[in-house]
Amino acid sequence: MRSETRSDAPAPGDGLVRFGAVVFIVGAVATLVTVAPLFLGTDPFPPVAYAVCMLMGVGFVVAAAGVLRSVAAQRRQARESAGAA
Fold first, then answer.
1. Distance between CA atoms of 9 and 62, rounded to whole angstroms?
2. Cα 76 from Cα 85, distance rounded (Å)
3. How many CA within 13 A on the CB side of residue 39?
4. Is 1's pLDDT higher than 50?
5. What is the pTM of this model?
6. Which residues are CB-contacts of 55 (< 8 A; sequence separation ≥ 6)?
């Protein structure tokens, strides 16, 4: 018997984790595209392209915030269920 209840409803923070993952992937692809000319010997991209690479870190921070929000919601739920018992 499982003590967990399965719900299809998204938990708090799930949206932030998904959005952060997408932003991270966009930043990672931008990093690969920006670094490729350095190895291929072509002209480097303008500085704006290097700024887009920073999205990788932003995505990581957003996803981490989503995880922390989910943890806080689970702790709150556990505290409420322990108080009711």
1. 21
2. 15
3. 6
4. no
5. 0.79
6. 23, 24, 26, 27, 30
On the 0-12 / 13-18 / 19+ scale of CB atoms within 10 A, 11 is middle
Can you tell me the mean pLDDT for 52-79? 93
Cβ 4 vs Cβ 47: under 8 Å: no
Q: For residue 77, give both structure tokens.
A: 């739920």
Alpha carbon distance 46, 25 (integer Å): 21
Q: How many CA atoms lie within 13 A of 59 on its CB side?
A: 18
- The torsion region of residue 34 among left (phi > 0), alpha (psi -120 to 50) and beta comes to alpha
- pLDDT tens digit string along 31-51? 999 999 888 888 888 888 888
Length of the chain: 85
Mean pLDDT comparison of 17-21, 37-41, 77-81, highest-scoring range: 17-21
